[in-house]
Amino acid sequence: MSFTADRLLLFGATGDLAQRMLLPSLCALDADGLLDPKLEIVGTARSELDDAGYRQFARAALEKFLPPERRGGIAVFLNRLRYQTLDANDMSGFGAVAKKVGTPERGLAIFLSTAPSLFEATIAGLAASGLAGPNVRIGLEKPLGTDLESSRHINDAVAQAFSEDRIFRIDHYLGKETVQNLLALRFANVMFEPLWNAAHIDHVQITVAETVGLEGRVSFYDGAGALRDMVQNHMLQLLALVAMEPPVSYEATAVRDEKVKVLRSLRLVAPDETVTGQYTAGAVGGQAVPGYADELGQSSDTETFVAIKAHLDNWRWKGVPFYLRTGKRLPRRTTEIMIQFRRVPHSIFAGKGAQSQPNRLVIGIQPEENITLSLMVKVPGLDRDGLRLRQVPLNIALPDVFAGPQRRIAYERLLLDLIEGDQTLFVRRDEVEAQWDWIDGIRASWAVHGVTPQPYGAGNWGPTSAIALAARDGVNWHE
């Protein structure tokens, strides 16, 4: 929809996400003059607060989570905030929320950051109180279900009140600058796209590694595990962006059409193409940390690590393996995509004793945003004893290249796009369901074959069998 909302309604307005990401993002946007002057922000949650109490709550969060250099606009931003207490299970409370929101001049944007169990009741309350009309759009924070069936149930409930063009499903990885830069790298540079296929690429690796453990997410994580927490959403979205065909334009429908084609071409993973693990006590960054079961307080079969060898059965990628790896309590925090090109078909330098290595493109997403392309160059010298080649990186550190523009966190862009109505960086229903369909197939295979997590010491790159998963193809994980 084309309107820019002049009301923003935040559900879960006192939660951890609101404190760490939503309020700081909105305040930063406001300080930079990117929010409409008429935009009013209404927060709602179960906490008993009035407008003044919520502004005090928001100030504390902003002073804690906003960098010092970005705190100058806090006082002005707080004037935008109002608050209404709500128990989403109590339909009678939605009338007070609607009254607090008032009548927007242009339209209302809603950000729903609550437990999935509250989605259905919340949507019903919004519809009953007149907060789901044609000038209202809604953003949905993950998780959107725990499998395909529950995801469809949630999507059906939301579709009762909102058409697909008014539903903004959030995957915050899509708001990261380097993730968006992946499309620019592929489709704005003539040297890459002709080589971006099975004829020239040997394999692809996608790694999302965390050094943290449960970190207060005990109740959610033990019921989810690494496969559903990270692979189903973030990693499959990265895979889709790497593998998609060129869209006809950088527009929401065109981009998402191509992504869903990739997701539907994912082959069912064979039993020997996955490895699961669970961390035991060890050391990360020189600090001793407990094992997962110790943090949980009981034994569990939940995987904290998963590695997958995935295949796309389509023309462009037939025969090219995609190695996916994610886990907790790994040696370092990193999210990166590595494109391994094939070797040159014939080395003219072999007769001179030189050895050539295949080119490699590494796209770092976090904590550093950079792009590194390895090239083979001649080592300086007279070569009387033979010619030598060396692999040399061409490194583009994006924060150094773009020293002027403010580096923004992902939620700044996503919240602004929600307010303004741009769906390009949001996930469509058929994407979500294609992702869940593939994930459900993996979990079903685990159940049939009795797959349980293998132990790995905290501070290691998962179980040794994860190394073997790639090594049997002559591949080493990029570390």
Provide the CATH topology of the largest domain: Dihydrodipicolinate Reductase, domain 2
Could you state the oligomeric state of the chains shown? Answer: single chain
The strands making up the biggest β-sheet line up spatially as: 16-15-14-13-7-12-11-8-17
Provide mean pLDDT, rounded: 91
Beta strands, count: 17
CATH class call of the largest domain: Alpha Beta
Characterization of the model:
The strands form 3 sheets. This protein has a 9-stranded mixed β-sheet with strand order 16-15-14-13-7-12-11-8-17, with helices on both faces. A 6-stranded parallel β-sheet has the order 3-2-1-4-5-6, with helices on both faces. The protein is an alpha/beta fold and 479 residues long. The protein is globular and about 85 Å long. It has helices at residues 16-31, 51-65, 74-78, 94-101, 119-128, 148-159, 177-187, 218-221, 225-243, 252-264, 292-296, 398-401, 410-420, 429-449, 464-471, and strands spanning 7-11, 40-45, 81-85, 108-112, 136-140, 167-169, 201-209, 274-280, 282-284, 287-289, 305-310, 322-327, 334-341, 360-366, 370-378, 389-397, 454-457. Helix 1 (16-31) packs across helix 13 (410-420), helix 6 (148-159) packs antiparallel against helix 14 (429-449) and helix 10 (252-264) runs parallel beside helix 14 (429-449). The longest helix is centred in the last third of the chain and has 21 residues, at 429-449. It folds into 2 domains: 7-169, NAD(P)-binding Rossmann-like Domain (Rossmann fold, 3-Layer(aba) Sandwich); 179-400 and 427-471, Dihydrodipicolinate Reductase, domain 2 (2-Layer Sandwich), CATH 3.30.360.10. 34% of the residues lie in helices and 21% in strands.
